[in-house]
Design a protein that fits this description.
It is built from seven helices and two strands, in the order H-H-H-H-E-E-H-H-H. With 144 residues, it is mostly helical. Among the domains are: 44 residues, no CATH class; 50 residues. Strands 1-2 form a two-stranded antiparallel ribbon. Helix 5 packs antiparallel against helix 6 and helix 6 crosses helix 7. It is elongated, with a radius of gyration of 20 Å. The site of zinc ion has 8 residues, from loops.
Length: 144
């Protein structure tokens, strides 16, 4: 088994990039996150009782409809026959950010990362980051 010092010496002599946290953070982007996992995370929070029509509340069932639901594609509600998306009526509806980007944005803010740095990671303006922060805070402050 190679020793730590041995590995470090080989990497240094090969001129490989370091694994220092600053160097790794500089590479951070949505490509390290799974889109499906992030989408499922948001959908579970929006629809804790499972996929339902945001218009009539009817359960979304059927393999094809559920697949479209999970991909955030438009589908026809089998109950009210309206065109809907899982994002209809949620914060994601007008989001010009995919669920991966939004998950990264919110989690980095949660870790106390500066909004300007968060903006750089996901390729949006700092104003977008601050706007999302205000939106989610307002959401928890809405009286029930
Ligand atoms: Zn419906």
């Amino acid at each position: 088994m190679a020793s730590f010092q041995g590995v470090a010496k080989v990497e240094e002599s090969a001129g490989l990039p370091t694994w220092l946290p600053d160097d790794v953070a500089a590479e951070l982007s949505d490509r390290f996150f799974d889109a499906e996992t992030c989408t499922d995370w948001f959908l579970t929070r929006c629809y804790p009782d499972g996929p339902t029509c945001p218009r009539c509340g009817g359960a979304i069932t059927g393999e094809r409809a559920l697949a479209r639901w999970r991909r955030l594609q438009r589908l026809t509600c089998p109950h009210c026959l309206r065109k809907i998306k899982a994002t209809t009526g949620t914060l994601l509806q007008e989001a010009h950010l995919d669920p991966r980007g939004l998950f990264i944005l919110l989690s980095l803010l949660g870790l106390g990362v500066d909004p300007y740095d968060v903006a750089g990671v996901i390729g949006v303006t700092p104003a977008t980051v601050l706007n999302w922060k205000a939106k989610v805070i307002a959401l928890v402050e809405v009286p029930a």
